[in-house]
Amino acid sequence: MKAIVAVDKNWAIGLHNKLLASIPEDMKFFRTTTTGNLVIMGRKTLESFPHGKPLPNRVNIVISRNPNYDGQGAIVVSSIEEALEEAAKYPDLEHYVIGGSSIYEALIDQCKEAYVTYIDHEYQADAYFPNLEKKDNWEEISRSEEETCFDLCYYFTRWKNKNK
Questions:
Q1: What are the boundaries of each domain within the chain?
Q2: Following CA atoms 35, 37, 38, 43 in sequence, which dihedral angle do they give, to the nearest 10 degrees?
Q3: Range 2-161 has CATH code 3.40.50.2000
Q4: Which single residue of 18, 27, 79, 147 has CA 20 to 30 Å from 118?
């Protein structure tokens, strides 16, 4: 399993259930990386997508405490454990954790890698990704050249969980 996320300098990922920045190259990287694979997310992440619909051409697993939640075609489960059981039914696909913060927090140490788009900016935020720089078991293994989108500088980084 892998995590994929865009973070700011403080490892923030969102505000009011919206991304902090819209960077076309990051969106393209996310789409290219996850298409044809399996994504695990929380209910609020699903609801942040256009029309609240699952991502096309992926197996979408959504975790919701509401047993009657309509995932509009996504596989809806009620716990992290159920999500992992459901994901295990798709061994030929890469599994990506795509948010939100509580789902990342619960699953980050089960991930073997994390693709982190690091945005060199500080935003006002209310959702965060676990700070991998402060976790002993994680190390950055690659970083792209600096990219820019208008006045934003960002990097594509890859992290490895040393325990996996």
A1: 2-161
A2: 0
A3: no
A4: 79
